[in-house]
Amino acid sequence: MKPLMEIKNLTTRFHTQDGTVNAVNGISYTLDHGEILGVVGESGCGKSVHALSIMRLIQIPPGEISAGEVIFDGRDLLKLSEKEIRSVRGREIAMVFQDPMSSLNPVYTVGFQISEALILHKNMNKRQAKERTIELLDLVGIPEAGSRFNCYPHQFSGGMRQRAMIAMALSCEPKLLIADEPTTALDVTIQAQIINLVIGLQQELGMSVMWITHDLGIVAEMVHRINVMYAGSIIERGLVDDIYNNTLHPYTMGLLGSLPSIDEAPGKKLISIPGLPPDLIDLPPGCPFFARCTYREERCAKELQELENGPEEGHSVACWRWREIQKMGVS
Amino acid sequence: MNMETKVLLQVKNLKKYFPVSKGLFTNRQVRFVKAVDDVSFDVYDGETLGLVGETGCGKTTVARTILQLYHPTSGQIIFDGVDLASLPENDLRKMRRRMQMIFQDPYASLNPRMTVGSIISAPLDVHTDLNRSEKQDKVQDLLKLVGLNPDFVNRYPHEFSGGQRQRIGIARALALSPDLVICDEPISSLDVSIQAQVVNLLEELQDRIGLTYIFVAHDLSMVRHISDRMVVMYLGKVMELADRNEIYLHPRHPYTKALMSAVPIPNPRKARDRQKIILKGDIPSPLNPPEGCNFNTRCPLAQDICFKKDPEYREIEPRHFVACHFA
Amino acid sequence: MTEKTPVLDDLTDFAVREHRSLWLDAWRRLISNRTAMIGLIVVAIFVLSAVSAHFFWKYDAKMDLDYGAKLVAPVLRVSEESPEIHIFGTDKLGRDIFRRVVHGGWNSLRVGLVAVTISLTIGGILGLLAGFFESTDLNRLEQSLLMAGIGLSLGALPAWIARQPIQSLLFALLGVASVSTPAFLENKSRLRRLVFGIIGLLIGALSGIFVGPMVALVCGVLGLGIGLLLAKPVGGKVFSNIVMRIMDIILSFPSYLLAIAIVAFLGPGLEKGMIAIGVVGIPIYARLARSAVLSVTQKEYVLAAQSVGEGHGRILFKHIVPNILSPIIVQATMGLANAILSAAALGFLGLGAIPPEPEWGAMLGDSYKYLSSGAWWAVLFPGLAIMFSVLGFNLLGDGLRDALDPKMRV
Fold it and tell me: CA-based Rg of chain B, rounded to a whole angstrom?
């Protein structure tokens, strides 16, 4: 079956006073129908920027999507007109952001904001929109949805606001839900509730989900596949089990090693990756992880390795030395 | 841990209520935010005590009240045998040398208009009478101690990354060689790989210099890694206090159990296999804590008595304290 | 005697960005802003011409009269009719307008600087104290000073009535006493109020008795009231509230009318005008300073300073003041523009600069009646001078706001 979305060589840059920031550098991957994809990386790796590029929400200028294709359901989103992309946003692809307080307009009721999307995209009248909105609020687990319709965002707690955002995102039954760090600002128990909710909704509605986060723990329990990003490139991809059990890229290894596992024996010193992420303005040629990699060699500084297929199906890695590293038995 | 280890800090029945006042010129206190509501625990010399909880649990308020940045509403804070509230201002100032804090936000905890050198030497200016070159030497030593290049003494905070700024904050906290360092969410604003660097640094410093830490955080797996014992707080009260392994392997309080099960595990198979306890509802507001046990609005085990009577905080096993009617 | 600090073995973190000071960054941003540069150039021209005119091109306004050359249109070359060059023409008294405009610039500059200095210093300090007291616990010394100040100001009323300044002082002392009350009065607020009320009554009555029975009665009653108010030490919040409400009251007057009223009270003259404009501007800086202080005291570095044990003075001067400078600098620049405009307004109405002192507004005021007879130059050039100087400062101020905006580069 054809994938829902295919991204080819997506490249996004920002032109600033200090130089050109290479935020996303030619990434390519596919997303299937009904798949939950985790996009993982630290700050500055380009995960949020690439999602905004898909939605064409990058401010141009100073931003510029300088190359690539985003084939969604047969159409290249990057080539659509303003009007056409606006009808895609919200209706076919919906996005949920990190800070629900600033994503909801504080001067309108929550109910109004959700109904707005319905009236706009689904041509409902006010009454129908209200009914549907209350259904949605109920679906995302907001108690007393009927009376909550008239509440303002500040009257909701953080978790409830995020649920309201999800309700808004789902209102037009999108094919793809992009969630950009939706639970980072929430408490652990509330985070568990939201993750549970999204998994449940995904199964019920059959949509695809892209979950962007820096938390490798969250993705372990909820996604099917993972893209690991670093400095604007995808450096490893694969099924979630393969990534964790047979990690190939030194950065992913370092990242997993930095995490104290709740299950492992404590007392082991954490493996920290020395140094800092590279300056996106001054990206060196070759592998972006070169300066911090324990396995680096000359070739890594000069040429960037493309993603090549690893031992398992669907598992690919962008590293010259992954076979040797595997042989060394470090994982 | 040695049972005869000296107790460095005792927190006894600590309460901190923040008044929400009304009235233009008067201070009529209408309501209170019960940020900390009768908290007691001890901190042993040389240990790392983890203090965890979610929004509104009061952990940051406890930390700041210990340092006397807030005046306690009632209760005692006894540091090395001395009741801090009873100290006159001058003596309290001297006591401050012995307990310092590392703050959460590396971008807001350093004065952007001061050089790194002056930031670190500020405690030395206040408490010691070292001359200028002695202070400069000390600052250089401290920078090296936290793994920063001492040549950058005259740079400003905005020239450093988040992790480096946090190291500067650590250097500042260590300037006076304190006994106790309270770390208030020191790594939550940092990237994952940098978090590991900073945590390793903190542990190494503890071994080298002999520090006692109170580690306040909401990232439970990191707290478990670094702590010897843990205190779990909810809505201003202590729910459970025990050795770290006990908390993780044998939690007794329903909240602790739910909390542990909610922590993401970076291991797909284990994550899928484990039993997740999903709590219903939201955390109540500290302005209006529920009657009876604070956790009764979300507790899967709540019964009649939980809505009427506040559970007693008692030691159910040696060194394991719980506040629940059914533990 | 410091203990040797142990050193870690491996230094991991050497990577730091290229060195750039904050001010240099701001300067770069300012230079790259074209409109700000225009503003800067205009301001520079204005300042340079005003200063050099004052020191190098002597001008005695009183001696400057030439009835022979009244209202001559701009003349660029010497000719039969006009033996002298008048680039901007002459006014109704034959004075060269160009010369008066340039010298008027010096007066405008002075007014601007003095007025803004007054507003900034008084308003800034009030706002700083209000914000600081509101967000920090006051120590005993500060509380005593605060209560003394309140006692002093409240006591000024009976002191003025009885013409006995000593009353003010006595009430100040009463204020201090309120902070250092003996312990047994700690929690009994009714008793305290009673005691303080009685003491206040006695101060007023006993001092007033030396003047007369009526005065003694009035001062006694006032003293009773003051005593009741002073009984409990007020918090910083009350102080801040009172100060800001007074600022609100000043702000509720239309600024020009208030300035006129002050000048009417003080008398004419450029110096009085400076004071008037300065006073009118105080609340703006007070509000600005207070809100800037409040946002800074929320920051963790202030909390860190407190946890280290830094005193209030050190926190104020090392942490708070340097971080509130940016918005104040921007406001001061725009405030200069405003002051120049206000001075011109006052001058136009005949208040402010005393003739024959050259002042742009006054020049406008003198000459606008001749507009209908065709003497456009007498009105245009002073007007343009006002416009360009105000525009220059405004553009510069806008540019400064963008340049100094502390957007942390992550």
Answer: 21
Q: Does B221 sit within 8 Å of A217, measured CB to CB?
A: yes
- Let me know: does C144 contact C179? Beta carbons within 8 Å: yes
From A130-134, B281-285, C363-367, the region with the lowest mean pLDDT:
B281-285
Instruction: Give contacts of C 18-37 with A, CB under 8 A.
Output: 32
- Give the pLDDT score at C6: 38
> If residue B214 lies in a helix (H) or strand (E), which one and from where to where?
strand B212-217
Strand-pairing partners, residue A75, are A72
- The helix, strand and coil proportions of chain C, stated in percent and rounded to the nearest 5, come to 75, 0, 25
Q: Report the SS3 class of residue B266.
A: coil
The arithmetic mean of pLDDT across residues B282-308, rounded, is: 87
Q: How far apart are CA A301 and CA A295, in angstroms?
A: 12
Q: What is the pLDDT of residue A280?
A: 84
Residue A17 distance to chain C (closest CA, Å) = 9
Chain C residues 120-139 with CB within 8 Å of chain B: 137, 139
Answer yes or no: do C32 and A17 touch at CB < 8 A. yes
Q: Residue with structure tokens 């002298």?
A: C84
At C82, the pLDDT band (50, 70, 90 cuts) reads: low
Cα separation, B28 vs B80, whole angstroms: 37
Ranges of chain A whose pLDDT falls below 50: 331
Residue B15: pLDDT over 90: yes
Instruction: Calculate what percentage of chain B has a pLDDT beyond 90.
Output: 45
Chain A within 8 Å of B275 (Cβ-Cβ)? no
Closest CA–CA distance from residue C405 to any residue of chain A (Å): 16
Residue C310 with chain B: CB contacts under 8 Å: 122, 126
Would you call B123 and C235 a contact, using CB atoms and an 8 Å cutoff?
A: no
Distance CA B306, CA B326 (A): 9
pLDDT at C184: 63
The Cα of B127 is separated from the nearest Cα of chain A by a number of Å equal to: 34
Q: Please tell me which chains touch A, using 3 or more CB pairs under 8 Å as the contact test.
A: B, C
Q: Label residue C185 by pLDDT band (50, 70, 90).
A: low
**Residues in contact with B314: Cβ distance below 8 Å, sequence separation at least 6, in sequence order:** B321, B322, B323
ipTM score of complex: 0.84
B212 forms beta bridges with: B180
HSE (side-chain half, CA atoms, 13 Å) at B45: 15
Q: Name every chain C residue with its beta carbon within 8 A of the beta carbon of A276.
A: 13, 15
Nearest to C5 by CA among B134, B184, B198: B134
Tell how strand B237-243 and strand B320-323 pair up: antiparallel
Tell me if C15 and A17 make a contact (CB, 8 A cut-off).
Answer: no
Contact list in A for residue B278 (CB cut-off 8 A) is 192-193, 196
Enclosing H/E stretch for C303: helix C300-308
Nearest CA in chain C to A276: C15
Give the helix/strand (H/E) hosting B16: strand B7-22
pLDDT surpassing 90 at residue C61: no
Task: State how far the alpha carbon of A87 is from the alpha carbons of A50, A81, A179, C139, C349, in Å.
Answer: 20, 10, 19, 62, 62
Strand intervals (E) in chain A = 5-16, 19-31, 36-40, 63-72, 75-76, 93-96, 176-180, 208-213, 225-230, 233-239, 308-309, 316-317
Question: Computed from CA positions of residues B176, B180, B184, B185, in that sequence, does the dihedral angle turn out positive or negative?
Answer: positive
Is residue C8 scored above 70 in pLDDT? no
Asked if B108 lies within 8 A of C3 by C-beta distance, the reply is no
CB contacts, 8 Å: B181 with chain C: none
Asked if C306 is an interface residue toward chain B (Cβ–Cβ < 8 A), one would say: yes
C314 to chain A, closest Cα gap in Å: 35
C318 touches chain B (CB under 8 A): yes
Mean pLDDT of C192-203: 85
